[in-house]
Amino acid sequence: MAPKVLVSDKLSETAVQIFRDRGIDVDFMPDVGKDKVKLREIIGQYDGLAIRSATKVTPKILEAADNLKVIARAGIGTDNIDKEAASKKGVIVMNTPFGNMITTAEHAIAMMFAVARQLPEASASTHAGKWEKSKFMGVEVTGKTLGVIGAGNIGGIVCDRARALKMKVIAYDPFLSEEKADKMGVEKVELDDLLPRADFITLHVPLTDQTRNILSRENLAKTKKGVRIINCARGGLVDEEALAELLKSGHVAGAGFDVFSEEPATDNVLFNLPNVVCTPHLGAATTEAQENVALQVAEQMSDYLLTGAVTNALNMPSVTAEEAKVMSPWIKLAGHLGDFIGQMTDEPIKAINILYDGLVSDMNLNALTCAAVAGIMKSVNPEVNMVSAPVIAKERGVQISTTKQDKSGAFEGYIKLTVVTDKRERSIGGTVFSDGKPRFIQIKGINIDAEIGQHMLYTTNDDVPGIIGTLGQTLGGNGVNIANFTLGRNAAGGEAIALLYVDARVPDEVVEKLDDTGKFQQIRPLEFSGV
Ligand SMILES: NC(=O)C1=CN([C@@H]2O[C@H](COP(=O)(O)OP(=O)(O)OC[C@H]3O[C@@H](n4cnc5c(N)ncnc54)[C@H](O)[C@@H]3O)[C@@H](O)[C@H]2O)C=CC1
Ligand SMILES: O=C(O)C(=O)COP(=O)(O)O
């Protein structure tokens, strides 16, 4: 059946066309994102959800999203998506980090000019038939200092345009290196340095717990008298009440706001103040940007739902379509190894070590690690997948470490998982043969060559004669057909292990009978579907 996607925001119809062309079943309901009740009612039918900023993906919506695999934001900011809840639910969150960056940077520059020259008020006055030539005295931007808070993709373009306008640009961004700042021709500063120096301040940070209220009352008070403030990033970054007071007192000479603490903003303390230019979250509203983001979102979601390729995900490592193809048996193997060793471990897990050997060590290890951890965490939470596994492991304080090494043995490559508990360490190794089939090659350090079947029995026993005969007789006598039987031992007369691949689930009472010959464990079917 074709995957089903809901577009719940005003996306360009280009997205709808791409979904259809790629064979995805798409419902275009651009207003449903604003209707929480309706969205909750219908979300259960969909594998994918494509949104902009009007749809709020809350834990309640996610709770009802039983089939959802991917949420894609046609734009940059994902503060309207509860990413933690999505990750826990195993839903990938993607955005389109570059599609609207130029457009948004241009909007910030447009706002700066609009505020510098009071363009909207002058325009309204002229439309009204007044000719108030002396009322609208502006300031030049040339030679002025622009303080950029957040010099990432959009902030970086703003810096570039501002330098072309002959402004002095200073930037506050803890993640901006001195080298990058030099290359950009901007001076990297601390926030406390930026505030009193800037003639114009423009914000380009995401809204996070760290950036919320970054221009607080206290910080606004540190700004230079006559400063003009532009916010084309997110409402919630600036204390609007405090800014309104400073605008009224004349300390702040003007403000250009595209985003507000509450949206849609139909009422706000900044409204109707002199020299405050407001737009209704238009930062990304150009034909070019909307085409870009719609196209990217539709391609990314289709790729993921049809091929497993992951691009621009915020809660999952990227996997290209080529990688997805080559890696898929290895991802499956990592999941099976994890699932198996998870079932062998009945104490709380403290750490997981993953060794990647040979050809596998050159693959996308982040994705393989997520798959292995997902397999292991299945014992804790059967619903876990590659997205939610790292979150669940972190919540439980499980340390994850990975090592890679050059080909070290007979196999072209293998994966070995070691699970550490308070009492012991357990390990399992596996490889993928050239036929694409995953095999277990080592359990508890004992070599074995076992096919992986759906119904498996695992046993450890003392290496003494007679065990195999009794085992075969008991299973045969109870109507259980053995498809494959693999043995291994660490030394003659030492510890032996056996993996039996049987045609059907072995009844519990038969497993109990088998316990006379060793320690048997029925392995829950190893079904690993990736994400
Ligand atoms: N008005 C609109 O329509 C639009 C608004 N936006 C907003 O713009 C924001 C920025 O977008 P991009 O530049 O593409 O993101 P980005 O991720 O490329 O850049 C953000 C920058 O902020 C910096 N940063 C993070 N925490 C910080 C902190 N505590 N203090 C200072 N800097 C910090 C990061 O290091 C990064 O360089 C988006 O998150 C979104 O909220 C984006 C597109 C359109
Ligand atoms: O991309 C972003 O972060 C934006 O804020 C654009 O929002 P929008 O898609 O226009 O609702």
Automatic annotation (TrEMBL):
Report keywords, A-Z. Answer: Amino-acid biosynthesis, NAD, Oxidoreductase, Serine biosynthesis
Asked if the record carries the keyword Repeat, the reply is no
Gene3D superfamilies to which the protein is assigned, alphabetical: 3.30.70.260, D-3-phosphoglycerate dehydrogenase, domain 3, NAD(P)-binding Rossmann-like Domain
Q: Does Transmembrane helix show up as a keyword for this record?
A: no
Q: Which CDD domains match?
A: ACT_3PGDH-xct (cd04902), PGDH_4 (cd12173)
- Domain D-isomer specific 2-hydroxyacid dehydrogenase NAD-binding: from-to ranges: 109-283
Q: Could you give a single Gene Ontology term from the biological process aspect?
A: L-serine biosynthetic process
- Which domain of life does the protein's organism represent? Bacteria
Ranges for domain D-isomer specific 2-hydroxyacid dehydrogenase catalytic come to 5-315
Q: Name one Pfam family in it.
A: 2-Hacid_dh
State the EC number(s). Answer: 1.1.1.95
Using the UniProt record, name the top-level EC class of this enzyme in a single word.
Answer: oxidoreductase
Q: Which family does it belong to?
A: Belongs to the D-isomer specific 2-hydroxyacid dehydrogenase family.
- UniProt GO MF annotations: NAD binding; phosphoglycerate dehydrogenase activity
Pathway info: Amino-acid biosynthesis; L-serine biosynthesis; L-serine from 3-phospho-D-glycerate: step 1/3
- Positions of the D-3-phosphoglycerate dehydrogenase ASB domain: 327-444
Q: Which reaction does it catalyse?
A: (2R)-3-phosphoglycerate + NAD(+) = 3-phosphooxypyruvate + NADH + H(+)
Q: What is this protein called?
A: D-3-phosphoglycerate dehydrogenase
Q: Which InterPro entries does the record associate with it? A: ACT-like_dom_sf (IPR045865), ASB_dom_sf (IPR029009), D-2-hydroxyacid_DH (IPR050857), D-isomer_2_OHA_DH_cat_dom (IPR006139), D-isomer_DH_CS (IPR029753), D-isomer_DH_CS1 (IPR029752), D-isomer_DH_NAD-bd (IPR006140), NAD(P)-bd_dom_sf (IPR036291)
